UniProtKB/TrEMBL annotation:
Keywords for this protein: Transferase
Family as reported in the entry's similarity comment: Belongs to the thiolase-like superfamily. Chalcone/stilbene synthases family.
Keyword check for Phosphoprotein: no
UniProt domain Chalcone/stilbene synthase N-terminal: residue ranges: 6-200
Domain Chalcone/stilbene synthase C-terminal: 226-357
Name of the featured protein: Type III polyketide synthase
Cited PANTHER family: HYDROXYMETHYLGLUTARYL-COA SYNTHASE, TYPE III POLYKETIDE SYNTHASE A
InterPro entries documented for this protein: Chalcone/stilbene_synt_C (IPR012328), Chalcone/stilbene_synt_N (IPR001099), Polyketide_synthase_type-III (IPR011141), Thiolase-like (IPR016039)
Originating species: Streptomyces rectiviolaceus
CDD domains, per database record: CHS_like
């Protein structure tokens, strides 16, 4: 796989900020009154606030909307976040970037519409008529890595072009009338966000000023699927909404496999875990961060970006890992030559990762 340079990265969230305690007091306390551990679940989620297109304190007062209304809301808010992020990365890249965009890859697992939203955005931003487009649906929290791999393949085939690549998730439109501990966990964790990258070849000179004129390079990716845990996590369309299941054993499955998984990502580049300064661990929940951090002997500082994103945004499905990468770039400010490992997990169970050099 050819390397690709990150020329610009922008993120967006819906305008409504929902404090976790307020959401529990005003909505979920009554909703999960038959679940004795519900308050403990919300308090232990690691989430303090989330941005949500549908505020759970008000959106479900009159019942649970049908799937049509949910898909309309998904499309509306996906496009709103897409306008912010696509416009942001194109502006950051400067004159001439728009004409060089030859591929556009987006992922979302929280909705569907045709024409798919990247077609609408491509029209609005005046992108080329011969633009190659890919919409990746329903792959879950690790879908950003499938976006990245598709983008890197496009750059390998057409190294002179640029690629728009991103995600948009509107998880808040999928609250369901199901009052179990498992669904309390889901309702305690998930938020909404979008993110967009502009990628070029590793030697591309254009870059976002956020990275001091030299955007980080994606050196490679690694994927593993463990079909023996196929039922541990799922995401299905039902009559009223999409329904997620999440086994409490997922953190244990991941902890058992994370060390050899990371070694297989790093070994082709002559690196080991001790050579990596920055880590982006998808916060499927606080236990996943805890277990992965313990197994890889990561420091609190290295886990900080993942914990902060979980606290301030919740788990935003596929967009989350790009929120974490943005925070690493903005707050950790890696030195040239340092490395980062990004990872996310989802249905399959599937483990995805990428190696970045700053």
């Amino acid at each position: 796989m050819s390397a690709g340079r990150l020329l610009a990265l922008r993120t967006a969230v819906p305008p409504t900020l929902v404090p976790q305690q307020s959401a529990f007091d005003e909505r979920y306390r009554e909703m999960f009154e038959t679940v004795p551990q519900a308050e403990e679940i919300f308090r232990g989620s690691g989430v303090t606030s989330r941005h949500m297109a549908w505020d759970p304190r008000t959106a479900y007062r009159d019942g649970y909307p049908p799937i049509k209304a949910r898909m309309e809301a998904w499309q509306e808010h996906f496009l709103a976040m897409g306008r912010q992020t696509v416009g942001g990365v194109l502006d950051a890249a400067g004159p001439g970037a728009r004409e060089r965009v030859g591929s556009f890859v987006v992922a979302s697992c929280t909705g569907y519409a045709g024409p798919t939203p990247e077609i609408v955005l491509a029209k609005e931003f005046g992108l080329r008529q011969d633009l190659r487009r890919t919409f990746i649906g329903h792959m879950g929290c690790y879908a950003a890595f499938n976006v990245l791999k598709t983008a890197l393949d496009a750059l390998a085939a057409r190294p002179g072009e640029l690629v728009l690549a991103g995600c948009g998730e509107v998880c808040s439109v999928h609250q369901r009338p199901e009052f179990t501990a498992e669904q309390a966990v889901v309702n305690a964790l998930f938020g909404d966000a979008g993110a967009m990258m502009l990628l070029g070849g590793a030697d591309d000179a254009a870059a976002d000023s956020d990275t001091d004129g030299q955007g980080p390079v994606f050196l490679g990716t690694h994927t593993e699927t463990h079909p023996d845990t196929l039922e541990a996590m799922s995401w299905h369309i039902e009559d009223t909404a999409f329904r997620m299941t999440l086994s409490p054993y997922v953190p244990f499955y991941l902890a058992e496999n994370i060390e050899p998984f990371v070694k297989r990502l790093l070994a082709p580049h002559g690196l080991d875990t001790g050579d990596v300064q920055h880590w982006g661990v998808h916060p499927g929940g606080p236990k996943i961060i805890d277990f992965v951090g313990e197994k890889l002997a990561l420091t609190p500082g290295q886990l900080g970006p993942s914990r902060t994103v979980l606290a301030e945004n919740g788990n935003c499905s596929s967009a989350t890992i790009l929120l974490i990468l943005e925070r690493i770039l903005r707050e950790s400010r890696p030195e040239p030559g340092e490395h980062a490992v990004l990872m996310a997990f989802g249905p399959g169970l599937t483990m995805e990762s990428a190696l970045v050099r700053f």
